[in-house]
Amino acid sequence: MKKIFFLFLVIIISCNQPAKHPEHVRKKIPVEFKLNKSDYVILHFDKSWNWIPKNALPTTLSDAELFEIEKILEKAIKENNEKQRGNPQMQIQLEDKKRQYIPYINEKGEKLVWINFFCYDPTDNKTGTLADSVWRTDPVTVHDGGNCYFSILINLTTRSYSNLDINGYA
Question: Residue 102 burial by CB count (10 A; 0-12/13-18/19+): exposed, middle or buried?
C-alpha cells in the first residue's frame, strides 16, 4: 500500500512541474513576414555576377530571417534618413519598392543578403520599364534614377548592414 501511495504521490508531483524547455521555445515569438509576394523575389546567385564573392555559397532564406531583415532595414533607413535630413534626394523609403534578395554564405561562414530596391510600374511596359518576368529572374541594374533605386548588404550572422548605395541623379 505504501508503494502505491508513493507512486501516486510521485505521479501527482511530476504532473505539476513546469516543462523545462529552452528559452526560445518557452517564449514563442510570432514571426510573420508581411511583404506581399508580388513585391519581392529571392534570387539564387550566379557565380558570373562580379559583385558576389567568388567563393560564396548559395543559401536560402526563411520567413524568420526575412522578418529579421526587416528590422535591420528599418534601422538602416532611419539612420540614413537622419544623416540626410538636409538632402531629401538621398533619403529613402521602403514603401512602393520592389525587392530582390540574393542570399549567400561568405568565406567566414556568415549569412549575407544583398537586397536591391527599385521603383516599378507594371502599367508602364511600353516605355521601357522592366517586364515582371525579367526582374524576377535577373538583378536590376539602373544608372542614375535617384533614391528610387538603392541596395544594401545585410549580414544576418552579425545582425548588421553595410554598403547602403543610393543611386544619384543624372
Answer: buried
Q: Phi/psi of residue 118, each to 5°?
A: -160, 155
Mean pLDDT of 35-41: 89
pTM: 0.76
CA dist 12 to 6, 9, 15, 18, 19, Å? 10, 5, 5, 12, 14
As a whole number of angstroms, the distance between CA 77 and CA 66 comes to: 16
Tell me, what DSSP letter sits at residue 131? P
DSSP strand pairing (98-105 vs 40-42): parallel
* Cα 119 from chain centroid (whole Å): 18
Count of other CB atoms within 10 angstroms of residue 13: 9
Per-residue pLDDT reduced to its tens digit, 84-117: 999 988 999 999 899 999 999 999 999 999 999 9
Helices (H), the chain: 2-16, 23-26, 63-83, 132-135
Angle at 9 between CA 8 and CA 12, to 5 degrees: 85
